[in-house]
Structure formats: structure tokens, C-alpha cells
Design goal:
Blueprint lengths: L3 E10 L9 E7 L25 E3 L1 H11 L3 E5 L9 H8 L5 E5 L11 E4 L9 H6 L2 E6 L4 H8 L2 H4 L3 E5 L7 H14 L3 E3 L3 H5 L21
Parallel strand pairs: 2-4, 4-5, 5-6, 6-7, 7-8, 8-9
Antiparallel strand pairs: 1-2, 1-3
Length: 224
């Protein structure tokens, strides 16, 4: 059973998407080949944030820790979690009757049985067709007033038909043009589009667990 590279794991609540507000144990894995310039988890991959030693844990120990937290769901995230083989971790969580969620850009095959798949597509690594068919929800990061149209040109969200959340990129979360673009898009089109926000950040919920690390965020010009 291979160990996984762990950036952090902590007990909080899901701050986004259809499972908003649920008690959640987060497992954030190291590594991401996508490197978004505004990444709010840059500590998982950026050389300026890379620790001297990366902690590794077995799927069994991770599952035991998640189970002991009393959480409702387990969220596997990153970085980009789908670059790792998650079969063993998913198995260990499943035999403990813990629902398994993954948050991924969708560009890599998901190795492990998941109960819920959130795809947040990125320009530098577009989702593959098999993952588009598996998605339970999408999360679109709105960087500027052109972002939503950009993504609807690439992916037919209406045809797929699952909830598609429009999230302001966090450094733009008070930008009137970004917020108005989300509001107007939803008012004009409705389903499957929904307004989204990182609610856990308003509560500073993740920081309540000492195992959670401070954000290592990057800010840059939006991707084109």
C-alpha cells in the first residue's frame, strides 16, 4: 500500500458547492502540474513554498484519522489529487462508510472510486471527456468579466446539466465587474449556473484545526 504525499489534512466544513456546510475532513495532497497563477494552494507545488521534507501517510492511517474526526464527508483535494493513485485510499475510506469526494481540474483519469466529483476546469489542463461524463458539479473560477463566456465556449455545461458554480477568484471577490458578471449571467440564463463563493474563508473555518496550514497564495494576471 503506497503512501501519499500530504500537504495538510484537517477537519472543517465544506465551504463550496452542493455540499456546502457539511462537516468535512480534508486531505490535501502535494503536487500539481497545472500551476495556475492565482493558485490559493500554491504550497502544494510552488518551489518558493516547498518544504524540506514532505510528510507521507498510508491510506490506512489517513482513513483512520478521517473516521476519528466524526466528519460527514471526506474531501480529497490538492494541488491536483488525480495525479495520484487513490484506489487504496478510496477503499479504506469506503470500508469505514465515509462518503468520498474529490476536487480536481478533470485533466487526469481518477484512480479510485469516488462518491462525488467536483471539476474545476483550468486553461492549462482541460478536462478529459471521461471526467466530463462523471462530474457531479462544476466550479468555474471567474477571473474577469470574460471568464464565464470563455468557459461556456469550451464546455457545454447546459448539455451536461449538473450544477455549475460561478466562483469569483478570491483576489477578485470584491471586484464589482467580476461579481456583476456572475449575477447577470445567472439572471439571464438560470440553470445549470449558480452563484458560488468560498464561504469557509469568511468564517476562517479551516484555521480552527491546527493541522491546517496558512494559505500560500499566488496572484498574477488572469490566464487567457
Amino acid at each position: 500500500m503506497s503512501e501519499l504525499p500530504i500537504y495538510e489534512r484537517f477537519h472543517s466544513w465544506q465551504g463550496e458547492g452542493l455540499h456546502l456546510g457539511k462537516s468535512a475532513f480534508f486531505i490535501r495532497l502535494h503536487g500539481c502540474p497545472v500551476h495556475c497563477p492565482w493558485c490559493d494552494s500554491a504550497g502544494t507545488w510552488h518551489p518558493e513554498h516547498k518544504p524540506d521534507n514532505i510528510d507521507r501517510m498510508s491510506p490506512l492511517d489517513l482513513a483512520d484519522e478521517a473516521f476519528s474526526s466524526g466528519c460527514e464527508i471526506v474531501v480529497i483535494t490538492g494541488g491536483e489529487p488525480a495525479i495520484h493513485n487513490l484506489h487504496d485510499l478510496a477503499y479504506e475510506l469506503r470500508i469505514r462508510n465515509l462518503p468520498i469526494h474529490i476536487e480536481t481540474c478533470g485533466a487526469y483519469p481518477i484512480l479510485g472510486e469516488m462518491d462525488w466529483i467536483t471539476i474545476s476546469p483550468k486553461n492549462l489542463a482541460l478536462p478529459i471527456e471521461e471526467n466530463l461524463a462523471l462530474a457531479d458539479e462544476f466550479k468555474i473560477i471567474v477571473e474577469d468579466e470574460t471568464s464565464i463566456q470563455h468557459w461556456t465556449n469550451k464546455i457545454d455545461f447546459a448539455q451536461i446539466g449538473v450544477p455549475t458554480w460561478l466562483h469569483p477568484e478570491w483576489s477578485c471577490s470584491k471586484d464589482e465587474s467580476v461579481l456583476s458578471s456572475i449575477t447577470n449571467w445567472i439572471k439571464d440564463r438560470g440553470a445549470p449556473f449558480r452563484a458560488g463563493f468560498q464561504m469557509h474563508k469568511l468564517f476562517q473555518a479551516d484555521e480552527k484545526d491546527k493541522r491546517s496550514k496558512p494559505e500560500a497564495a499566488l496572484c498574477s494576471e488572469p490566464q487567457k
